[in-house]
């Protein structure tokens, strides 16, 4: 187990202090020849430590005179507490193994500090977070943004963000021992498992997709002979869903990056479905648009991903408030480009996996101001909140990811 802890500490350090991408680090550090159990243990420890890092550090920091300069030592302390509080490891194991990890990472000088600090933290059962960052386990700017956007729901959203995410699947047939979504056809919540070895997954009957993301296909409701564009399509979950709902459509799946476009091909192959996969920039349609306008466009826009932070825990450390300005600029460019590619009476579904209004209803307001030929088609679902424009599924509503949708129609000038 020591080796697992060492790798986990190194990965967590890269995420928290170097702002690296967690899934990329897993690919680099967890080679294919490692046992699946080993890899699962490393991932679980990284997820637990990173998800709760802002509180874990506060727990031990209250017992040291000053913060250790060595940031890897900070991670070792936080990781040990993650094992105790979130993996129910015994106290003596947690303390001893943290010291072992320090020795193996050439931090022998820190063993005394680690030992004494952890023993004090674990002995003291009363914990009072020093501030909101520690209490809610989010950066302060993020907390402020949620308070502003969702005055009645910000705590609920953050609480959901800090939970382990459920496993939702989309299935062509009823799934045994699963919880069926009450109002989204084909969505089932199942026990956590390695889904890629599941027979139904391999045969294309089942796909991993959060229930709130499955809403896109149902809203667009593809009809025979419609020409449809999935504008930011990778990895192809929504592309596949649209074709499952109606294979008698002409579907273009657009993706900016070649390596991500390959994922669409792989998904379509597994599902035994066909779409035209195009590598291109949605905001530069002159380079790839054939000239045949679309009846419907799905724009699942690049965003802060603030609605899926329970799945992508590294976002808490990667995102900065100033990022939103550039993200919003890209979203507006994609919306304007999509507007030109639609037929008259055509429909545009704008979607993000964000809960920040700046990326959602405020973007649509800007778009409608500059595109008066568009009007909103109102959506209504029992689990979603109505916004000034569009609807918001807040994170944790019916155990779903945070997702925003706004459905627009292009009218005659």
Short description:
The chain is α/β, with parallel strands linked by helices and 413 residues long. The chain is built from 17 helices and 13 strands.
Structural description of this entry:
- The structure is a single chain.
- The chain contains 17 helices and 13 strands.
- It has helices at residues 2-18, 22-29, 36-51, 53-61, 71-86, 91-104, 111-123, 132-136, 140-149, 154-161, 199-202, 211-220, 237-245, 258-271, 315-318, 323-341, 361-370; strands spanning 167-171, 179-180, 187-190, 206-208, 227-230, 250-255, 276-279, 294-300, 342-352, 374-377, 385-386, 391-393, 403-410.
- The strands form two sheets. Strands 5, 6, 7, 8, 9, 10, 11, 12 and 13 form a nine-stranded mixed sheet that branches.
- α14 links the parallel β6 (250-255) and β7 (276-279).
- α1 (2-18) packs across α6 (91-104) and α12 packs across α13.
- It is globular.
- The relative contact order is 0.09.
């Amino acid at each position: 187990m020591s080796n697992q802890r060492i790798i986990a500490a190194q990965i967590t350090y890269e995420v928290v202090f170097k702002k690296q991408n967690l899934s990329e680090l897993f690919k680099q550090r967890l080679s294919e020849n490692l046992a699946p159990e080993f890899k699962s243990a490393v991932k679980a420890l990284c997820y637990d430590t990173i998800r709760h890092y802002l509180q874990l550090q506060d727990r031990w920091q209250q017992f040291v005179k000053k913060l250790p300069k060595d940031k890897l030592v900070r991670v070792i302390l936080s990781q040990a507490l993650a094992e105790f509080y979130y993996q129910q490891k015994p106290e003596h194991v947690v303390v001893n193994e943290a010291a072992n990890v320090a020795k193996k990472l050439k931090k022998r000088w820190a063993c005394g500090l680690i030992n004494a600090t952890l023993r004090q933290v674990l002995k003291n059962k009363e914990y009072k977070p020093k501030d909101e960052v520690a209490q809610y386990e989010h950066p302060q700017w993020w907390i402020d943004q949620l308070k502003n956007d969702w005055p009645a729901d910000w705590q609920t959203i953050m609480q959901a963000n800090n939970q382990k995410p459920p496993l939702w699947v989309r299935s062509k047939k009823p799934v045994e021992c699963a919880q069926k979504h009450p109002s989204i056809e084909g969505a089932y919540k199942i026990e956590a498992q390695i889904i890629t070895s599941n027979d139904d997954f391999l045969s294309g009957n089942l796909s991993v997709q959060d229930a709130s993301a499955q809403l896109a296909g149902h809203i667009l409701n593809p009809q025979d002979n419609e020409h449809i564009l999935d504008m930011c399509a990778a990895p192809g979950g929504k592309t596949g869903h649209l074709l499952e709902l109606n294979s008698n459509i002409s579907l273009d799946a657009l993706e900016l990056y070649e390596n991500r476009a390959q994922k669409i091909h792989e998904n379509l192959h597994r599902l035994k479905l066909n779409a035209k996969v195009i590598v291109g920039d949605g905001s530069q349609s002159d380079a790839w648009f054939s000239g045949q306008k679309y009846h419907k466009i799905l724009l699942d826009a690049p965003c802060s991903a603030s609605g899926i932070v329970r799945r992508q825990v590294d976002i808490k450390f990667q995102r900065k408030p100033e990022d939103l300005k550039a993200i919003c600029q890209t979203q507006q460019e994609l919306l304007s480009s999509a507007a030109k590619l639609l037929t008259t009476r055509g429909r545009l579904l704008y979607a993000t996996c964000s809960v920040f209004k700046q990326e959602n209803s405020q973007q649509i307001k800007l778009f409608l101001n500059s595109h008066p030929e568009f009007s909103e088609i109102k959506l209504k679902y029992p689990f979603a909140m109505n916004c000034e424009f569009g609807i918001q599924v807040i994170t944790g509503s019916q155990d779903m990811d945070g997702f925003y949708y706004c459905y627009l129609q292009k009218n005659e000038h």
